[in-house]
Design brief:
2 domains; 62% helix; DNA-binding transcription factor activity; 14 helices; transcription regulation; SIS_dom; Rossmann fold; five-stranded parallel sheet; alpha/beta; transcription; DNA-binding
Length: 289
């Protein structure tokens, strides 16, 4: 059995930690180099918790103490620095299938297994609340930068076929600042945030939540920096799997959310479909006439 890294230990234990320990754990995960060379008291000051909380966190993680934490961090950082990139792993895994028959079947079965794994982890209550907000919110804002942009763009396109007032938040600061000014507590923000995390995404989520906006985050780790700023969070975590390979799972989840939204008022969405089809027929007729 593969030994857990310090990051995996924290992620697996995170929801069972006290609020203070979660605060310390989050700081540690985002500042491992600092933690590796500073005393527990200094880490506590930086994380704004007591030294005792840092020590208790070590015990909660199953460590013998702070010295073991530093040792595991040092090992983790060394291994990370010597790892190939996520993209390299993606290509290597695909090249290993070079002489395999029905490569497409092997790859697509892997996608299917990841989809089922995520489906089993979804909170039914959170899913229900999210689909209600998707239906009832005044304006739906969607944000995702970098590797997260494709997911955000797909949701913007798909849900835009069914309801009005959908905004895909642009990346340039002047534009997303304007978006933040326009948001109200009647609105909803869906945030896609996958490694490597964009600080702008976290800022937008934080500001939106402070305005009373319903913020739903779809991310890849319980310790993702966007988690503290979300009212509901769906975590889709796969160790050692590139974002490229997880995208089919994310798209499947988006489709499930949209389907759930349409069940809130089937009559309304049937009317929306008819309106969309009417306009589509008009434009297509003009285009080809």
């Amino acid at each position: 059995m593969t030994k857990q890294t310090i990051q995996q230990k924290i992620e697996m234990t995170f929801n069972q930690l006290s609020k203070g320990q979660q605060k310390a754990a989050t700081f540690i995960l985002h500042n491992m180099t600092y933690v590796g060379v500073h005393a527990a008291s200094e880490v506590g000051k930086q994380a704004q918790v007591s030294e005792t909380t840092v020590i208790r966190l070590c015990y909660a993680l199953g460590l013998s103490g702070y010295a073991q934490l530093q040792k595991e961090i040092t090992t983790y950082l060394f291994e990370q620095n010597n790892k190939t990139s996520s993209l390299k792993n993606y290509l290597t895994n695909k090249q290993s299938l070079q002489n395999t028959t029905k490569q497409y079947e092997t790859l697509m079965m892997g996608d299917a297994k990841r989809v089922m794994h995520v489906a089993e982890q979804i909170s039914e209550a959170d899913f229900s609340v999210t689909t209600q907000h998707l239906h009832h919110c005044q304006t739906l804002y969607i944000v995702g930068f970098g590797a997260s942009y494709l997911a955000a763009q797909w949701m913007h396109f798909a849900i835009g076929l069914l309801r009005p007032r959908i905004v895909l938040v642009p990346h340039d600061p002047s534009s997303f600042v304007r978006v933040l000014q326009e948001m109200t507590s009647a609105d909803m923000l869906v945030v896609f945030s996958f490694h490597r995390y964009f600080k702008e995404t976290v800022l937008i989520a934080k500001e939106a939540k402070s305005k009373g906006v319903e913020v739903v985050a779809i991310t890849d780790a319980h310790i993702s920096p966007v988690v503290p700023h979300a009212t509901i969070c769906f975590v889709q975590s796969f160790t050692g799997v590139s974002t490229i390979d997880t995208m089919p799972t994310i798209i499947s989840f988006i489709n499930a959310l949209i389907a759930g939204m349409t069940t809130q008022d089937p009559t309304y969405y049937e009317q929306q479909r008819l309106i969309f089809d009417d306009y589509t027929n008009v434009f297509m007729t003009d285009r080809w006439s």
